[in-house]
Amino acid sequence: MDLTPEQTDILKELINIGVGRAAGVLNEMVHFRVLLQVPFVKILSLSDLRKEMESMGRYRVAAVRLAFKGPFFGTAALVFPPDSASKLVSVLTGEEPGTPDMDSVRAGTLTEVGNIVINGVMGSIGNLLKKRISYSLPDYMEDTIDKMLAGNEAGQDPTVLLVRTRFTVHQLHIEGDVLLLFEVGSFDALISAISSAYSATGE
Amino acid sequence: MSKVLIIEDSSYMRRIIRGILNADGYEIVEADEGLKGLQMVKTAMPDCVLVDLIMPGIDGLKVLNVLHEEMSNVPVIVLTADIQESVREQCLKLGASGFINKPPKEEVLRDTVKKIIEARNRR
What is the predicted pLDDT for the residue at A103? Predict the structure, then answer.
């Protein structure tokens, strides 16, 4: 299974629109400009995915995950290096990093930020493809990349479609990644939805 | 003083909503999950309910459904991160008086709550 250049192009554009909306939402929350990188789209095995993630140089991460399902299914995550997560919580709550008050609000605040950002990304994709997507409750964790991916090991070494977009808020020294993992069984539905959208444009 | 019930599992989001609506003089009562929220509608008798959709236990759609069937005189505003048009349409079909996406814009939240409570008081 592979994506054609046209399908990859449309998928990247869908992600761009979705992440763009999510960046707008994050911008409203932190009041600073959020910069986005071009999305990275790749089909790979879970073990290769782990290597890919480790190459990001972040063995320990703060992450909010949501499972999504509908015509296609998988997991979406908002992933921060821990120090970026602390800065973001500090900006949003006014609490100083490292204080007990900060610790008490950290998980709840990041969970809600992740929920809003991921809904922005996936909701835009659902709207553009005219497909209804439903979500699990958001799940917050601070752990290693391996642990973050532990929930995606149902198969032997399943193939996933990884979509990754890096965002940065330079003024606040915050960076993070939006990750979407489409599971193998949903490739056909995703490609079909993309193809329909592609043909609907008349191109 | 009009009373607003917030049913929302995120304490961070409850704090934001409370901050916005307190400034307009509303009395705020809160529930951190759907079942507790439904009980509080009966005991606190709010003039308006703000409800999140995705919550542990009874979710926002179920809360909306129950309120629509059993207490349709209480207006409900859905406040959710879900931006899908189909979700908005479903909520409005289920009787929601308003639908606001998170994070709520201050003026949108204030105007929506004000208009919906005014409309209820005119009935």
Answer: 78
The answer to whether A114 and A138 have CB atoms below 8 angstroms apart is yes
Model confidence at B112: pLDDT above 90: yes
pLDDT confidence tier of residue B102, bands split at 50, 70 and 90: very high
What Cα–Cα distance (Å) separates residue B52 from each residue in A37, B45, B104? 31, 19, 12
Q: Spell out the CATH class of A5-200.
A: alpha beta
Cβ contact A123–B102 (<8 Å): no
For chain B, the structural domain boundaries read: 3-122
**Smallest Cα distance from A114 to chain B, Å:** 10
Tens of pLDDT, residues A5-55: 877 877 888 888 888 888 888 888 898 889 888 888 888 887 887 777 777
In total, the C-beta contacts within 8 angstroms joining chain A to chain B are 55
Inter-chain residue contact A123 with B105, CB threshold 8 Å: no
Q: Which CATH superfamily is domain B3-122 in?
A: Response regulator (3.40.50.2300)
Task: Give the C-alpha separation, A18 to B33, whole Å.
Answer: 29
Average pLDDT over residues B32-50: 96
Classify residue A38 by burial, with Cβ atoms within 10 Å: 0-12, 13-18, 19+.
exposed
Any CB–CB contact under 8 A between A70 and chain B? Answer: no
Q: pTM here?
A: 0.85
The DSSP 8-state label assigned to residue B73 in this structure reads T
Instruction: Check residues A200 and B30 and name the one with the higher pLDDT.
Output: B30
Interchain CB distance below 8 Å, B12 and A105: yes
Name the residue facing A109 among B12, B54, B86 (closest C-beta): B12
Beta carbons of B114 and B24 less than 8 angstroms apart: yes
State yes or no: pLDDT of A203 exceeds 50.
Answer: no
